[in-house]
Amino acid sequence: QKFTVGDYLAERLAQIGIRHHFVVPGDYNLILLDKLQSHPDLTEIGCANELNCSMAAEGYARANGVSACVVTFSVGAISAFNGTGSAYAENLPLILISGSPNTNDAGQFHILHHTLGTLDYTYQIEMAKKITCCAVAVNRPEEAPRLIDRALRAALLSRKPAYIEIPTNLAGAPCVRPGPVCAITEPVHSDKAALSAAADCAAEYLSGKQKPVILVGPKLRRAGAEKELLQLAEAMGCAVAVQPAAKGMFPEDHPQFIGVFWGQVSTLASDAIINWADAIICAGTMFTDYSTVGWTAMPDIPLMIAEADHVTFPGAHFSRVRLSEFLAHLASEVTPNDATMVEYARLRPDPSRVHTAAAGDDLTRKELMRQVQGLLDENTTLMVETGDSWFNGMQLQLPRGAQFEIEMQWGHIGWSIPAAFGYALGAPGRKVVVMVGDGSFQVTAQEVSQMVRYKVPVTILLVNNRGYTIEVQIHDGTYNRIKNWDYAALVRAFNGDDGQAQGLTANTGGELVKALKLAGENQEGPTLVECAIHQDDCSKELITWGHYVAKANARPPVKAA
Ligand code: TPP
């Protein structure tokens, strides 16, 4: 059988480690889908719509390192741009693949379905360029290998999404076979001179400081540098805090872990040590309005910031220095200095006593979180949705091996449902638990039906506080009320006549105990537990954070001088 453009793409996707590709069919991509489907190492996963499809791929990339989302022209791709934007913001190589019009149509000035009804068919790739690191359109079959390889390499190197457009009449066109995959996957190493100069500069910088601390940011994991960060931390013996979006990127049971740093809503008093330090080694950090609590928690000393491919000091910059190599190199040069740990030992808060609610009492947020803590083991991945679930999640103690996933940079409500579906397919055998608010759930609820279809045992804890509580705290109005659903019945409806989903409701602590037990036993599909709590039952951190973020949002325009 002849080898085609579609086969080339399939072979490359399989070679870079993709085992499942997420799709919604449409007439511009059907031949391409046939080709992908016929590859022995790729399993096609159908999604309910392209928003969910892109978010499922986003979640799969978190578990698997890279993912693919295949959609049709415009009506599909423009919806999938949302998950692609998320992948950009969250540093995940998601490959967005779109079918496109027959190559003859543009030159024949045809008006085509699913398009803007003008004669320009380049608008989609032009839009894609803004939200990917590389966007290519294959216009002749001979160009396919070069363009596909370029897009995939760019995505893998920069940990950002890429876009590949394949016309409907080219997916089945003859194509040559791909060369060795290392041409795409081989990493770029640090420049030797830059690396040693950067490490020397860092060692010298630190030798002049008394109270160094390490702050870990969300780009650490994406740069594959968690192991090396641990090496550096142990070589220094100093305190280590993480930013909220980096929770779980440094082991929380490690004696040097001092909590999540975000100003006034920090956990375990890590803010005291960050504010006390005279040098902050920032590894993969992102200082945003959210992570700095409306700019109230931006450290005010000069920072040493190590990113995926460069390091910046007060007074010097080094390009082409890989984060993992830099941290490992620095670990071998630094002088130990545990001053921040000594101080932390003095001010570390004592563990708080957790009160167990009576089984018959109305369910509260505190009791819910007490029970969620009990669910976490080394095999659990907890995914927390935008809303009070972020703040509740931050308070949990992750046992060694437990993973924590959050989409704090993009912050799309509804992310957690399709992303958990994708994540679970990419990490079979892990126990995936989602905490999601009622408002967020309503955005992407359909994807629970794909968990039913593919028998994915995700546990969904739907926190029903009757509305957009996080928004109530930032700025309230009638728009923050939503229609209540019978969530448990909805999930049971997704079963049709053969599904194994469980839809449960917990109004008391005792009911939640029983529901979580059933959830743990159901391995044949998702289990949703509607956890009903009072409308005003939210974390104090949400209220404080909401106050400062609202203040930052409301800054009046600066007057022209
Ligand atoms: N639209 C999208 C796609 N993403 C958003 N983040 C928003 C709107 C603004 N937004 C942020 S949080 C939120 C909204 C509408 C409400 C979340 O409500 P819910 O899921 O019920 O969580 P809760 O705050 O009640 O915990």
Question: What are the SSEs and their pairings?
Answer:
Blueprint: H1 5-15, E1 20-23, H2 30-37, E2 43-46, H3 50-64, E3 67-71, H4 77-89, E4 94-100, H5 103-107, H6 123-131, E5 134-137, H7 144-158, E6 162-167, H8 182-185, H9 192-207, E7 212-216, H10 219-222, H11 226-236, E8 240-242, E9 257-260, H12 270-276, E10 279-283, E11 304-306, E12 310-313, E13 316-319, H13 323-331, H14 339-347, H15 365-375, E14 380-384, H16 388-394, E15 403-406, H17 416-426, E16 431-437, H18 438-444, H19 448-453, E17 459-464, H20 469-474, H21 487-493, E18 502-506, H22 509-521, E19 527-532, H23 540-553
Parallel strand pairs: 1-2, 1-3, 3-4, 4-6, 5-6, 7-8, 7-10, 8-9, 10-11, 14-15, 14-16, 16-17, 17-19, 18-19
Antiparallel strand pairs: 11-12, 12-13
Helix pairs in contact: 1-2, 1-7, 3-4, 3-17, 9-13, 11-13, 12-14, 15-22
The protein binds thiamine diphosphate.
